[in-house]
Design brief:
Strand content: under 5%
Number of domains: 1
CATH topology: Farnesyl Diphosphate Synthase
Shape: globular
Largest sheet: none
Helix content: over 70%
Distance between the termini: 51 Å
Order of helices and strands: HHHHHHHHHHHHH
CATH architecture: Orthogonal Bundle
Length: 296
């Protein structure tokens, strides 16, 4: 296998789309802190972002590194090549975690590693490792999607928020709780294209655990709950002008429900469109809220 082929594989396994979504939700947390009147600290902001991205990068590479030995990365690879790829991914993951540890020391010297920041960083690290490596390896127990949803929609925004703010504010929970539901719906949707392959290799994803008959209604319920929580915000004294942009993605959510309903009824699936639409629901909702918080 050529070096370029290895690099392309590493990039694919690192899931760049998740890294982009992580950057978005991190910016959302920082935007919430700014909206509440906290002065932003650029060094802490950027160091924290790099820390988050390195952790997620390492998490995905470790998840691939510790997948069952009989699962190939590429169809034409030899066992020797597979072993080399595993070693390369392990080395890259360890390097990424080492750099993140160095950044933690930098934040400590800068005086920004407060107890809440340290708490959420520790939770993010523990959850990332629990997702990827044995003995827990949540990815193979049907809970990997939930772990990623919590990382992206809860822990990463919280790290950004507490790097800039001293105290908790319920605005953070108000924006991250519905986003967690949208993130879980997205990661559940990503299981559908590989459903047959997952059954073949006996991978325990959330979809294979639930079965598509129960997974599809759960997906729809998560979308409804997310937008319902956004709609309840004014009752909790949050200004409607702050959260209404989240409803711009309702048409995309309705189309996602329509596509999955047709697939359940036997229609030919267009997996790429399903995945792009699912990512757009979560990503554009996070982006619209982030933009609103940063501009107000």
């Amino acid at each position: 296998m050529s070096t370029s082929a290895r690099l392309r594989l590493i990039v694919r396994l690192a899931r760049p789309s998740d890294l982009v979504l992580a950057a978005l939700t991190y910016a959302l947390g920082a935007g919430a802190a700014r909206y509440l009147g906290n002065d932003l600290r650029p060094l802490s902001l950027w160091v924290g972002l790099v820390w988050v991205l390195l952790l997620l990068f390492a998490t995905h590479l470790l998840a691939a590194c510790f997948q069952p030995a009989d699962e190939p990365f590429l169809e034409s690879e030899s066992r020797r090549e597979r072993a080399r790829l595993r070693l390369m991914m392990l080395q890259l993951a360890v390097a990424a975690l080492s750099v993140s540890a160095a950044l933690t020391v930098l934040m400590l010297r800068d005086g920004r590693l407060t107890p809440p920041v340290l708490f959420f960083q520790a939770l993010a690290l523990i959850l990332g490792l629990a997702y990827a490596i044995p003995p827990l390896r949540m990815k193979d127990r049907g809970f990997g999607e939930l772990a990623l949803a919590i990382l992206l929609a809860d822990f990463f925004p919280a790290i950004a928020f507490f790097l800039q703010a001293e105290e908790f504010h319920r605005l953070l929970a108000m924006v991250t709780t519905p986003l967690t539901a949208l993130a879980l719906a997205f990661f559940l949707a990503t299981d559908f294209p590989s459903f047959a392959t997952d059954l073949k290799y006996e991978r325990h994803t959330m979809l294979t655990r639930l079965g598509w008959q129960r997974a599809i209604p759960l997906h729809h319920l998560l979308l409804v709950v997310a937008y319902l929580l956004f709609a309840l915000a004014p009752l909790l004294a949050f200004p409607w002008s702050l959260l209404w942009p989240a409803f711009l993605t309702v048409p995309l959510a309705a189309y996602q429900v329509f596509m999955l309903r047709n697939i359940a009824l036997g229609a030919k699936p267009v997996w790429r469109l399903l995945l792009l639409n699912g990512a757009a629901i979560f990503g554009l909702t996070a982006y619209s809220l982030t933009l609103t918080l940063w501009l107000r």
